[in-house]
């Protein structure tokens, strides 16, 4: 029988580990070790479940719940977020505990109704509303657009636990649920990966919410997100890192992303990297079709520059690069500069089109796009290396 794992007195993890998952939110976020769907049980005079899990894993959730409360009923279900990885198990849980009251933000009620079509008498809650379950008082904190309109957190004052939903999540699958069991550098790297691929477009909302939480002066010993491990020992380090992520703090770093069939555009990418690298810039270079997209987004989070290259295919840029540039628009990058480049045979406008798409994504340009006909000569490559050196000076002059 699947067992719950106790986090603190009266508080249990009753979630699920999906060890097989390799794509989170479809192809949006490739992951390597699976994902956890965290749900939590608060055992008091009245019993509260914080979130559910993916529908297919609901039997495991119910097993873990029963391992703690046996035949007792659940009185309250907090739906912090209507996305299916948190809520699609709700209907089955409600079938087993029909008298449980469900609580959502105002936008959460809309989300649940539009996805599952049944009105379960959802109780609408807003920031600073409270729910008393006996010894414990639950307070709700709305966090719209981190990363859906309906997201909210739940704070338990007496236990000093913040159930943060998607905020502060990571894709770490471990039965060692507390951060004490893991290296801080690894945890923050995984949190950065999650932020870059899921939360990055909403940096301003995250920044404002972090300031709001700080102003509330909450005593927090544990932050329990909906994915990954639970923060306890490294909360200060986490909050500092999240503020850096949210405010797009950057390094003297450039990310080069390209597609190349006959290695001509690849040679251009490597020449630019040579000039940048020997001038003290941290350079990451990726052929997009051979690289997990999540790696590129993570590296872009704190880079100052993105250089994008493509050859010409029937007068079009590579489909992979076209898709990448669309993603850049969705991620709303800030404080970055970019440049298009590429080799061509008889239609030289692809790098200029890349420049235009970079601007559409809110990325300022270093200058004119770089086009070379067919194979770059030794002189062409030397010129690109010199350009890399010049770009390095511009990158160093950019604010952090």
TrEMBL record:
Q: Which domain of life is it from?
A: Bacteria
| Pfam families, sorted | Flavodoxin_1 (PF00258), ODP (PF19583)
Q: Cross-referenced Gene3D superfamilies, in alphabetical order?
A: 3.40.50.360, Ribonuclease Z/Hydroxyacylglutathione hydrolase-like
Q: Which residues form the Flavodoxin-like domain?
A: 254-392
Family per record: In the N-terminal section; belongs to the zinc metallo-hydrolase group 3 family.
Task: Give the protein's recorded name.
Answer: FprA family A-type flavoprotein
Organism this protein belongs to: Massilicoli timonensis
